């Protein structure tokens, strides 16, 4: 009854239970981290702005994105997924969300960055509502932990406006 | 072959040691991992603890066999024979 195999089985079972518990504790310890991320986005240029053949507006922007997301990283963080979305309201949709750029930050050392790029994904409206439109640029992020639940948050930057005329 | 069967007190001791060692290693692993901000360090320390605990508590080490059971001498047992099971009267009457 109390043999080699019995003791090995009891040990494996108990050690896996405890492994689960220390992982849960690691996940809980994330609550003690109060992050203070910062982000600034500048629209450097409106490269072109036109109405597509199907009647939808499309604009191409050159963006200058700088952010410091280092405080999001804890010892339980695997990576951070970050994306920049243009958000605005139209008559049809109370919230339009157009992703312009995204990235995966693999480590804390890469979490303070600065890039200057044209929008990576197309900024196309569902309709022709972009002329003179005020919009927000929102930096969203998802903190992916090694164990436990994913944390999502964002920084909203407002006060951007598209030109009145196509160009 | 004994196939790793330890005496009663040895069984109790090995199980207690197994639980205490695993919990202590888990606590050390968590504190070290949190202090040095390294999840990997936590896992490595705990894995080391599991390995060490396996070596200490799973094989049938001599220190788990310090209280062997004292069986009765066969001659002693013969002097006190096992009582015969009582013969049921109903059963015998059935055959008549």
From TrEMBL, chain A:
The keyword Glycoprotein does not apply. Residues 1-24 form the signal peptide. Keywords: Endoplasmic reticulum, Membrane, Signal, Signal-anchor, Transmembrane, Transmembrane helix. It is found in: Endoplasmic reticulum membrane. InterPro entries: SPC3. Essential component of the signal peptidase complex (SPC) which catalyzes the cleavage of N-terminal signal sequences from nascent proteins as they are translocated into the lumen of the endoplasmic reticulum. Essential for the SPC catalytic activity, possibly by stabilizing and positioning the active center of the complex close to the lumenal surface. This is Signal peptidase complex subunit 3. It comes from Aristolochia fimbriata.
TrEMBL record, chain B:
It is a multi-pass membrane protein. InterPro entries: Spc1/SPCS1. The chain crosses the membrane at residues 16-36, 43-64. It is found in: Endoplasmic reticulum membrane. It comes from the Eukaryota. Its main location: endoplasmic reticulum. Component of the signal peptidase complex (SPC) which catalyzes the cleavage of N-terminal signal sequences from nascent proteins as they are translocated into the lumen of the endoplasmic reticulum. Dispensable for SPC enzymatic activity. PANTHER family: MICROSOMAL SIGNAL PEPTIDASE 12 KDA SUBUNIT, SIGNAL PEPTIDASE COMPLEX SUBUNIT 1. Belongs to the SPCS1 family. This is Signal peptidase complex subunit 1. The lineage of its organism: Eukaryota, Viridiplantae, Streptophyta, Embryophyta, Tracheophyta.
